[in-house]
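Support request, priority: normal
Reporter: lab tech (M.K.)
Component: structure prediction queue

Hi team, I submitted a job for histidine kinase from Taibaiella soli yesterday, and the status page still shows it as pending. I've pasted the exact input below so you can check whether something in the sequence is tripping the parser. The sequence length should be 501 residues. Please let me know if I need to resubmit or if it's stuck on your end.
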Amino acid sequence: MRLLRANQLHNVFFYAITALLVFIGVMSFFLLQNANKLERLENERYKLTTLALELKETSETLTKYCRTYVLTGNHKWEQRYWDLLDIRNGVKPRPGGRKIALRDSLFKLNIALDEYKELLLAEEYSNKLVKTENVALHAAKGLFADSTGEFTVLSKPDTFLARRMLYDAAYYADKEKIMHPIDQFRSMLDKRISSEVKWRNSRRNVFLAFIISSIFITAFLSFYAILVLRKKILLQLKELEISNEKIKKNEEELLVQNKLLDAKVEERNRELKTKFEELMTSREEIKQKEELLRKITAQVPGNTYMFEIQENGHPRLLFANQGTDPFFEGDGEDVSGHSQILAEILLEDDRAKFFQAMKEASKTRTVLNLQYRVTVKDKIRWRWLQAVPEVEANNRVVWYGATSDITPLVDYLAAIEQIIFDISHVIRRPICTMLGMTQLISESNLTEADIKEYSENFSDIVKEMDRFVRELNEAYHLKKESTYFNIDVSSSIDKRKALFD
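Reply from support: The job had stalled in the queue. We restarted it manually and it finished. Here are the results:
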């Protein structure tokens, strides 16, 4: 709470000092404007006074040039007279190179109307005096005005008249008339400028008073704020010192904990190193066992598999070893394409049955026992698949099993079926004939000739039967040799001489 009040007090000081500085800036701006206005007023007074003095001085100079010409007759002074008059009227350029009449210069300055009228009046009196001087200049040259006012009348130069015109009381009275409006103008100008300067000075004093007061207040608040901040900073430094002590103490405790932790980490690293070495040893043993298992399964008369069953019934092989049955190209380390190859080589008639059996086994999770046909090198081969499911911890079902080529067994069974068929159908025909003839002999009174005829028929039937049995024996022997089974079963055959012994 105390810290909150200190922060609020600090904010109050900050806002107050900021407001005072802004106020000082505004007052300084107004003071600068006031000073600029005073400077403009003084500059205006100087320029207007200069123009008034120029009117007075040019009038005096024109009088001097005119009188000098009349007294000496030197045309240089006449030329200077007319040059000065042209400069004042703006006909010729001033020494600065600018052409501007005295009256035009007044328009460009901030002159009051009554002041302007006084200067115009002085200029009119000066121009009237110029007319008198013009008559005197022409009289000195012997030129006099006609009825139109033009100096066309030629006569004897009258310097006396010219001198009298430039020195009589009327001339001096006209010159006094010029000076009076100029003096009036200067008096009015001084009064106006002085009044405004006085008002501007009073404003300046007010601004200065505000600025100085604000500076004192700002200095006081700043000093007080510095004291408050100093106290606050000292308090914070003390708190910081206490915090540093706590940090130092915590660092010492942390250093001790780090040492203990380093010891634990080192011990843990040793344990991990030992476990890693054991793991590497186990891995090497597993690798050796895996290699041994691969060698063993390489001699299995069939293919060993590890696979998953997908939702569409297609198996996805995870491992395959061909054993002694080269069913796929490649080895068990690369089974990425075997699933697709299996789907492609399945016989079209067995494909639906194969995938349906896979689906049923996936649902029931029972032992898979399936015979199917494949096309290998343009030949149809029979295969027998047996696999058992194993459910892993993540509820994933993996099937382990093997397939083998049972084409020789199927061929052997087909041969036996063929033998049975031949015995039951082909050999049955002569036997039935013999039975019929035997029944006919037993039921009829036969003569010797009939018996002899029947005996010949019996002989033909027996010969036909003997020939057929021999042909069957040769055909079955060839079919047996065409199978892959190289098994001698002669010791298991009953070599009886009679069928029912």
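Residues 300-405 form a domain with the Beta-Lactamase fold (CATH 3.30.450.20). The mean pLDDT is 78. Let us know if anything else looks off. Ticket resolved.
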